[in-house]
Design brief:
homodimer; 414 residues; alpha/beta; TIM Barrel; 6-stranded parallel β-sheet; 3-stranded antiparallel β-sheet; 16 helices; 16% strand
């Protein structure tokens, strides 16, 4: 049996936002919580000491990527992922199913889980520019795609050596067991916002099959979350919610596709969450600042996303509303801008992170434009500290009953 | 007047190695000391907090590079280099004269200060493959070279914008004053191991002229080191030593070229050091482990070198003799080797650095082959910690009278 429980400490009045505590064999996570991504067993640019100094409670690593490099069996032989990466808190792993999308259609069509973020996903009516049927999927399989999907599982063409690797529920559970992560995900197929109804339905049915197999095969010392699919089709999402939540998972994750806009994503949550029971709810791969507020309000407990560290590496650094952050600038300054050339202020004058305590915007801009490696760490530290601090404020506001006020202040809603 | 003094605490019996203490306005440096290089105002991949945790006493930044990016006037406006880079200890700056070599002949002929490191500097007799005269210098000026050198100063073609920048003793002193570093270098011309006698003599004479001008123009709140040149020609090196040490510098630096082999470098020091008085002695740009022992033995107090952090980024990590390090492997393992794929040991089982306390060779190899940014920091921390620890052992051995034994143990001399 897994040492795993979830307790709801506070539920907002007349709403779905809630304060909770996930207990795992490697420590507790107060929710809502933002889970930083350690794709290959490191949160990019940060060391184990940085994660500790930031007070990082948990991380999420990628099953498929670690399976390829350095290999889950090797990690197991070396004592598991915690020992390997020097992180003693709870680790989530995904199931590899997301890469069916990200290395398949996502890669080919240059779209994200919310299709409209990239031009290819947009049409005149704000919906998909094209629909992709089962036939299209088949036709493209084995060509530009790096994935082949059948009812049995997913074949991936490795970007390392060009060889094909096959994943199914059983092998995904085995890999996650080898990694010795604490919270694992059922094997699923993440569809594209471009997939049509029939294809999305087929993929959802596969995902439900695989959910049952994951329950059967998973390492019982690990907590297992089921993943709800169904794209942005109301009846499919509701069907998937009923199916997954009827199974004895430890927690429930909501996977993509989440439609073509943030509004679509909110709509999907409004279909799904009211049908869920009290188990913890994880929203996979989402984590911009407005998303956090909107999805916490809709009852999400945990989020994982590469965004805060990825945008940091590309020059985007978070600022709070007191320092001029808002929905218009996505709570970011872009440090490469010449206006910061002689700016003595820290990134965010209200931030107490190690970067802001010592470095000016001018210095960080200098490091950025000089491509100095020091930049990547200090920028990532700031953005993660910012996220953790934001989550703390959100938890505090749920405790105090001031969450809606906090959301309105941040998102500038009158 | 600069707040600067040097005290010799212990002198080895019958030899030149010595224990000393440099006092500066920003703190003391116990010598022999290895000074890490912060070319553009950051020790590559490390933050101010890393430098503090490593107990870094001082760093050396590059005048010419900071002059171009972000600009010394900007740094001055922002409160000086210490504030800019968040380092409160003493900072050395070079004079820009080294770039006359590194961006000029060094770049064109692909050689280092010790010519024989690269094939181009080698000939059948182990000496220079070619000699370069004044005429050759002139002919090449403005072609492949990025430098033009006259008795007035050095023009550099910027790698940033292609524009020419002129440096002379006066402007070098002005830039170093703007940077507000603590120990500055007189303006000099660093020649190539390929330069012939006549050219090296001419460059040395210029360097002596510029030494006088540097004394005249430098910011009197900064400690100024004169630089001895003269290539690997005995009479020139001795003439330069007499000239520079007759001037009222706070310390003496020894610049390149240092010949075509490590033996040549030792020979140069044996010509120079016996003629010096008790002022502190800095060897510019040298710092492999065998060099440290050989040059400390020959009376050098401080070294700066990019090598420990540069080789770390390229996969070479230091190991001590107890862990198999020696002259044959240059005290290094190369972490990219497949033999470390499943090696659970830390880089050096005898090391107590933050990297070795937690990470295995297997994990570091995984980060290295995956090009994960985390690698660069953790590898640099190890190599710098290793150098600092080695210097501490060396200082201890001078105090104890066991330096020669320590050197023999490390360099495996019977």
């Amino acid at each position: 049996m897994s040492v795993f429980s979830f307790e709801i400490l506070e539920q907002i009045k007349g709403g779905r936002a809630r304060l909770g505590r996930i207990k795992t064999r490697r420590g507790d996570i107060e929710t809502p919580y933002f889970v930083p991504v350690a794709t290959l067993g490191s949160v990019r640019a940060l060391g184990y000491d940085d994660l500790a100094a930031l007070g990082t409670k948990c991380t999420l690593a990628n099953t498929y990527h670690l399976h390829l490099q350095p290999g889950d069996e090797l990690i197991n032989k070396l004592g598991g992922l915690h020992k390997f990466m020097g992180f003693s808190g709870p680790i989530f792993t995904d199931s590899g199913g997301f890469q069916a999308f990200s290395l398949g259609f996502g890669r080919e069509h240059n779209i994200s889980k919310i299709g409209s973020i990239f031009p290819h996903g947009r049409a005149a009516d704000g919906r998909a520019a094209e629909k992709v049927s089962e036939e299209d999927h088949k036709r493209k399989n084995g060509k530009a795609n790096l994935t082949k999907i059948t009812d049995e599982g997913i074949s991936f063409k490795s970007l390392h050596d060009g060889r094909w690797h096959f994943l199914d529920a059983k092998s995904s559970m085995k890999i996650q067991s080898n990694l010795e992560s604490d919270i694992i995900m059922a094997f699923d197929e993440c569809t594209s916002p471009l997939s049509d109804y029939d294809y999305t339905q087929r993929a959802m049915q596969r995902t439900h099959e695989w959910a049952g197999q994951s329950l059967q095969y998973h390492d019982k010392s690990q907590a297992l979350y089921g993943i709800i699919q169904g794209g942005w089709f109301e009846d499919l999402r509701k069907e998937s919610t009923d199916c997954i939540s009827s199974m004895p998972f430890d927690g429930i994750a909501i996977g993509g596709s989440l439609g073509h806009s943030k509004q679509d994503m909110h709509q999907v949550l409004d279909w799904v969450v009211p049908k869920l029971d009290l188990r913890p709810r994880h929203l996979l791969g989402i984590g911009e600042i407005d998303d956090i507020f909107e999805c916490v309000e809709r009852g999400i407990d945990t989020f994982d996303c590469v965004s805060p560290t990825r945008i940091a590496r590309r020059g985007s650094l978070f600022i709070s509303p007191q320092s001029g952050g808002g929905p218009d600038n996505k709570f970011r300054i872009n440090i490469k801008s010449a206006i910061y050339r002689d700016d003595e202020k820290p990134i965010d004058p209200n931030c107490r992170c190690p970067t802001c305590r010592v470095y000016s915007r001018a210095y960080l801009r200098h490091l950025y434009v000089s491509r100095e490696l020091t930049y990547f760490r200090m920028a990532s530290i700031h953005n993660l500290h910012f996220m953790f601090h934001l989550m703390e404020e959100i938890r505090e506001s749920i405790r105090d009953g001031t969450f809606i006020g906090l959301k309105k202040k941040w998102l500038q809603i009158a």
